[in-house]
Automatic annotation (TrEMBL):
Protein family: Belongs to the UDP-galactopyranose/dTDP-fucopyranose mutase family.
Boundaries of every UDP-galactopyranose mutase C-terminal domain copy: 146-342
The protein, known as: UDP-galactopyranose mutase
Obligatory cofactor(s): FAD
Organism in which the protein naturally occurs: Chryseobacterium hagamense
Pfam families per UniProt: GLF, NAD_binding_8
């Protein structure tokens, strides 16, 4: 008899498994894939280069709690991610910053002057409801066309005018020369990779792992008291309200017989090519190797569910599943797929730590009732 059956060995499931096992709970964690780590899984390819199988995963957080928690399972390599965009035949920093504007327009503006420049380009949009509104309201139509529209259409197969404002609101516009992609307090990569971090996280003797396993095949066979489900919530309920749409990525890897391919970890292609970006892993990992490995990302509507599509009608479908979930006893839904929300890695960890606290309180309450 397991206390908890957990589906999915990514961040959501693994953090909960580790926390619950530390409380003396017996945990079985299953995954349909043949490895732990979920989408953060990394491994050494046949040339000995550490790559991320499901695209670049760059860790960053403002949460000291999350960073301290993960630090129990890994040392860190400081790393600040930088992204260039291929725009008008030039490579310029993304997010848009002072350098981007000066390079694109052949100017030599100061920070104060670029504020006025962007204000002169901006077109007021009220109310701000869509991703298009967010960008045009901030930087105007010209920069919207250069940086956002084409990239968004490739990524989502939708025009920014059809997407929730949250999509482009994630990408700021800066008036200084800060060319870091993220500005979080903690920015680092697991020193020996994500998979090694997950191995340590799941090493507790109270945790049993079953890979290559569909939980539906074992859920009625293996006794357990409660279920923590990190898969697609619509799949759990047999798609009774319809299928929640996702975008996926077709990753195409190349190993090149050269030391370095590009100047930064990632280069975006907002308007040219069918792929959205190219990432070179050695920038991220700091690995020294005479060859290098890159990955092209081609967005697609088929494949593993990576990105919940943020549109009002999709949220309404999810809300119906959420109501069912709340009425389902002894089952917890969590993670990006379980709650149909785009989370960064640190946000998933924070969500799992919060769910652990909730479960702990509920268990204490159950014990109090039993003792009365």
């Amino acid at each position: 008899m397991y206390d908890y059956l957990i589906t999915g060995c990514g961040f959501a499931g693994s953090v909960l498994a580790e926390r619950l096992a530390g409380q003396g709970k017996k945990v079985l964690i299953v995954d349909k894939r043949d490895h732990i780590g979920g989408n953060a899984y990394d491994y050494y390819n046949e040339d000995g280069i550490l790559i991320h199988q499901y695209g670049p995963h760059i860790f960053h957080t403002n949460s000291e709690e999350v960073f301290r928690y993960l630090s129990k399972f890994t040392d860190w390599r400081p790393y600040e991610h930088r992204v260039l965009g291929s725009v008008d035949g030039q490579l310029v920093p993304i997010p848009i910053n002072l350098t981007t504007i000066n390079k694109l327009y052949g100017k030599n503006l100061t920070s104060d002057e670029v504020v006025d420049f962007l204000a002169s380009k901006a077109e007021a949009r009220k109310p701000v409801l869509t991703s298009e509104d967010v960008v045009i309201n901030a930087v105007g139509k010209e920069l919207y066309e250069k940086f956002f529209r084409g990239y968004t259409r490739k990524q989502w197969d939708l025009d920014p005018s059809e997407l929730d404002a949250s999509v482009t609101a994630r990408v700021p516009t800066r008036t200084n020369s800060d060319d870091r992609y993220f500005t979080d307090t903690f920015q680092a990569m697991p020193k020996n990779g994500y998979t090694e971090m997950f191995r340590k996280m799941l090493s507790h003797p109270n945790i049993h792992i079953m890979l290559n396993t569909n939980f539906r095949n074992i859920v009625d066979l293996i006794p357990h008291r409660k279920l923590i489900y990190t898969g697609p919530i619509d799949g759990y309920f047999d798609f009774q309200f319809g299928k929640l749409p996702y975008r996926s990525i077709d990753f195409r890897f190349e190993t090149l017989d050269q030391d370095q391919y590009q100047d930064t970890g990632t280069v975006n292609y907002p308007t040219s090519n069918l792929y959205t970006r190219i990432t070179e892993f050695k920038h991220l990992t700091g690995q020294v190797h005479h060859k290098t490995a890159i990955v092209y990302e081609y967005p697609t509507g088929e494949g593993d569910p990576y990105y919940p599509i943020p549109r009002k009608e999709n949220q309404e479908i999810y809300n119906r599943y959420k109501k069912l979930a709340e009425e389902t006893p002894d089952v917890y839904f969590t993670g990006r797929l379980g709650t149909y929300k785009y989370y960064n890695m640190d946000q998933v960890v924070a969500q799992s730590l919060a769910l652990f606290r909730k479960i702990t309180k509920e268990s204490e309450h159950e014990l109090q009732i039993q003792s009365v």
